[in-house]
Write a structure and sequence with these properties.
about 240 residues; 9-stranded mixed β-sheet; single chain; alpha/beta; globular; about 30% helix; Rossmann fold; disordered C terminus; two-stranded antiparallel sheet
Length: about 240
């Protein structure tokens, strides 16, 4: 493994990232319904635990543990087995405690230090952000959460629901989490004619010489894959850059 880099465990992604995620960075992963965010984050943790000896922590702000575990089994990823071997920890966060999460993040850090967690995932930040009534309050709460997470000294992916916009518009999220993270990956699931196609875009990645093209992606038996399959035969789209 390259010094200072964390392999994603997602085929085709590390090439786009310039070798992988920067160690201890916090990266937002956005997308709409069906974009594959939970699979993307889960794969990052599972591959870290099974292939790179990096224990993982999954914090769910949305789905129940049994639902996530059932979905992961379809890819051959046994969450219970990983927990039994102390290679992963899954925590459901009750909605009635979400508003106080940033203040309680210190307890999570203690758990991370005790277990030796190197990778973490939060899925999804959207329910947390929507507990605050105004956009300004959401931004402040999200900023506090991201700052607390950066103190974990782990490589963290935070999923978020993206806001639908016109094709070519700059992607953004309901929570504005991308504004405070070190990196921002957008997963799109666009309709083209009578079918939908997946694409991955690295919007920003501080400290990395990353690709700027839209790369085709797919969800296969082995999980989330960048390139390959029918989507890979489509031409790579160039990103439209807007200047202020």
């Amino acid at each position: 493994m390259e010094v200072g880099r964390v392999k994603s465990g997602i085929p085709g992604l590390d090439t786009m990232l310039g070798g992988g995620f920067l160690r201890n960075s916090v990266v937002a992963v956005a997308g709409g319904t069906g974009a594959g965010r939970t699979i993307f984050l889960s794969q990052f943790l599972v591959k870290g635990a099974t292939e790179f000896s990096e224990p993982g922590l999954f914090l769910s702000f949305d789905e129940r543990k049994d639902a996530v575990a059932s979905n992961l089994l379809s890819f051959g990823w046994n969450l219970s087995e990983l927990e039994n071997k102390q290679k992963a920890v899954f925590i459901e966060y009750p909605h009635n405690e979400l508003a106080a999460f940033a203040e309680q993040a210190g307890a999570i850090k203690d758990l991370i230090d005790t277990i030796g967690v190197k990778r973490a995932a939060i899925d999804s930040i959207t329910p947390y952000a929507l507990m605050f009534p105004t956009q300004e309050e959401r931004r402040i709460a999200t900023m506090r959460l991201v700052n607390a997470v950066k103190g974990w000294k782990a490589t963290v992916l935070i999923s978020a629901e993206s806001v639908p916009g016109q094709d070519g518009a700059f992607p953004h999220t309901l929570s504005s989490v991308e504004s405070f993270c070190d990196g921002f990956i957008n997963l799109s699931f666009r309709r083209q004619g009578d079918r939908r196609t997946r694409e991955v875009e690295i919007v920003k990645m501080r400290g990395s010489r990353h690709e700027h093209e839209f790369r085709p992606a797919r969800i296969a038996e082995e999980g989330f894959v960048v390139g390959g399959g029918e989507e890979a035969r489509q031409p790579v789209r160039k990103k439209v850059v807007f200047h202020e």
